[in-house]
Amino acid sequence: MIPVFKDDxxxxxxxxxxxxxxxxxxxxxxxxxxxxxxxxxxxxxxxILLCGVPIVKGAIVGLVTEFDIKADVLVSLALVASxxxxxxxxxxxxxxxxxxxxxxxxxxxxxxRAGIEKLVxxxxxxxxxxxxxxxxxxxxxxxxxxxxxxVLAGETIAVDGVITKGLTSVDQSVMTGESLPVDKSExxxxxxxxVNQFGTFDMTAQKVGEDSSLQRMIxxxxxxDAGKAKIVGIAxxxxxxIVVIAxxxxxxxxxxxxxxxxxxxxxxxxxPCALVLATPTAxxxxxxxxxxxxxxxxxxxxxxxxxxxxxxxxDKTGTLTYGKPTVTHVESCVPGQSDAALLAITAAAxxxxxxxLGKAIVAYYRQTQETSPPQxxxxxxxxxRGVAATVGAREIFAGNEALVADHRLELPAPLAAHAAxxxxxGSTVIYVMERARIIGLLALSDTxxxxxxxxxxxxxxxxTKLVLLTGDAPQAAHHIAEIAGIADVHASCxxxxxxxxxxxxxxxGEPVCMIGDGINxxxxxxxAQVGVAMGGVGSDIAIEAADIVLVGDDIKVLxxxxxxxxxxxxxxxxxxxxxxALNFVAIILAITGILNPVVGALVxxxxxxxxxxxxxxxxxxKSRDDDVRR
Length: 630
Fold this sequence. Notes:
about 50% helix, single chain, alpha+beta
């Protein structure tokens, strides 16, 4: 077999090219080949054989095996009828233009999914594992949790893990949409599929194989199916009835006029191709657009459902906030001791701590001072209290109020006021003591994402209502909500409380979009009209429960997603209206005899091509104030 025939796209293009030449020759009456015994063949038969036979074959198979009375059935009837009445050129043109329409549809869908399918090809085949001090190149699927991997400059990271040695920048653009590389250092996490930009670093594998971020995203991609949308089903049902109506209309016209050519023309123009193409092309183009912004749509009808949402419910931790504690305030109460000195001595005391708050203090010190704190000479963990450490000649204690009570110390009034204010804002307070005196405190909290207030304002500007559903205490919940700009707050929520709140809103006629990241959000994500999960920090259960995933945890893409869903639905409605209007006009002209099969095929397929082009515009659509791409 000629190699070109192994590639469906190349084969289609070859058939279209040969058919076009044959039709041009046939149109100018130079496309007839004389045969012995006075026979002759119109070259338009080439188009019928190359383009028309696959259409007829597909229609017969669908009709016989699935009783699928759809567009191909009507196209095949029109094609066969044109051949029977001697309109060979019209039959060839029908087959040629229908094939072009099918090719354009496939091309549009392929382009729409191109950004998503990049993920499938990102999985590196091998990984550089360090064992017994030596590097070994092994298949990526053989990497185990806990293995030490070495990643060189320019290499793609094979699994999820944490950097244990080295500094670098990582290109996360395919996964998160970020245009600039992200600096990474020891203790930072890296994801599979991202690219090391410079330098060499060692990492410990944490999620491998099917558990890695890239493979999880690939599974989401593979589940995306525009055919799941409810509106697609409506269009298909319309198409089935249109086939029946077309046959009846053609029969009546033939009986009333006595001209079979009018009946054939009706079959040609009545084909519901544009109607059937109107929805899936728009939805797939919308999915492709979303992918460019780091949004993966895992359910085909999610954009349709999102366009109907009247309220968005946010989880707090990991969604509006980063989901991890950081130092927000340092307060020294010893004359001559600066806040920076207090931070340094506390970080040194916490350096060997495995507690999340201790690690947060050390990380904050490294981030702000760009160096590591000094090593303590001695370290003791005080379970349920804090830590004790000897740093130089100083004996330092850092911990909670229970630790302060154990030392029978009282907070100085100014420090007590700072502590009360920090707690009112939802912060956790770490008290620092040296022997028999309190020398200061550190406040830690889960910080609001800097883009959250602007994102909330842009969502509110679309007319969508907002609500915060969080398990945090009322003080912390209202503090974050006030800064973010959310008036409606439900605090101290258990998973069933979030579920109940969403059901209440939806029972009142307000479809809800739930945005969350944790396991406790999974029931709410599943119950909501649309569930959106934070893909980076989100739990596997939350991601599986959601319809849409924000790959890079970037909530500022939400306004674009909302506006995109509405734009997709407007495009679908325009496509459907235009397709039905064009069909109606063409049918009237066919019944009156103004259109013949050749012109009818051209007019009909102009509508199909227009629908595809209109849907394709969604691939590059952006709202006027869209600034989500960095």
